[in-house]
Fold:
Amino acid sequence: MAIAEHSIVVAGTDGVITRWNDGAVALFGHRAEEAVGRSLDLIVPEHLRQAHWTGFRRAMDHPQVRDLAADLPVLCADGEIRHYAGRLLVLSDALGVAIGAMAVYAPEGSTGVRPFG
Structure:
C-alpha cells in the first residue's frame, strides 16, 4: 500500500492542524483547505476530547518514543464516527523537544486494539 493512500495528519504543539494529505481527504471527508489551521477537535469525537487533550498536552510536555497503534475513532465530515487503524507519533527535534504530533491512518484493516470501544 502506497503512502499516498494513507491518511497523514500533522499538528503543532498547540494541536492546530498543519498538514492534511489527500489520504486524509479521502478517509475523513474534509478538504485540506477546511482542515489546515483548525484544531484537532475537527476529527476528535466530542466525548473523547477531554481525554485527548490531556494526553496530547502530556505528550507535548514529555515527548517519548512509544508504539501507539490502535483502531482509533475519528469524527468524519459527515458527522459519523468511524474507526481506522492508526499510529500516533510525537514529533521532536534532535534535542528531544516536542515540535508537534503526527497520526497515520490506514484506509483499511485493523490493529485488533480498540482502546476507546
The domain at 3-105 is CATH 3.30.450.20 (Beta-Lactamase). Helices lie at 22-28, 32-35, 49-61. The first helix runs from residue 22 to 28.
